[in-house]
């Protein structure tokens, strides 16, 4: 008797058909994975290409702007920015004496008594309120010598109702930083002192300038602003008058303007060379 082999029923109808379908499904999944990998690589390449294109475009725009700027600059349409240069007058004067103040404070026995020193002005310059733009050069008379003419170092304090005098002093030495203005007129002086009363008086104004000033270009219109009243000096023959001393820093410049105290004055006081007469500054010891 012949036996027949039985198989369980299936929806597909044949076991061979099931194996074939499974093989086909496996091949389809691998193709999909490969296709996804290719798509991912393609998207990365696209992103890289777009980024590179954007960088190239930006560089091109920047280059065009620079070329345009250089072209306008050469034609003078764009003004060049001037370099920041500090003038010689604005440079801070460094202290050449290091720790000397501390040395004298710690060892007072090293201190020596120093007599007051006389400091003359760099120049006396007149400015005229009636002619505010007029520049009056410093007075410099010429003295004849065998070699020719040389200017004398005369300092002229000239004051009228409209003319005032600006003088600038350089504070000389360290440790002599107490300054006072003094005017000395000799008995046989040829100076002129005419005022509404006897003796004549002048007002002193301090200008806020501690650095070297260009005196040869000074006029009433260009004088430093912010003058403050400093004191009144009395002028008389065969006498000296000194204002109270005040602190001053070595290496700086002290600038003053001298004016008539009252209308109707006419004053001319002259100082010559290094002699202590006329208008000058006295420095007293501070260490």
Automatic annotation (TrEMBL):
Keywords: Membrane, Transmembrane, Transmembrane helix. The chain crosses the membrane at residues 51-72. The keyword Transmembrane helix applies. It comes from the Eukaryota. Residues 1-26 are annotated as: Disordered. This is Ubiquitin 3 binding protein But2 C-terminal domain-containing protein. It comes from Mycena chlorophos (Agaric fungus).
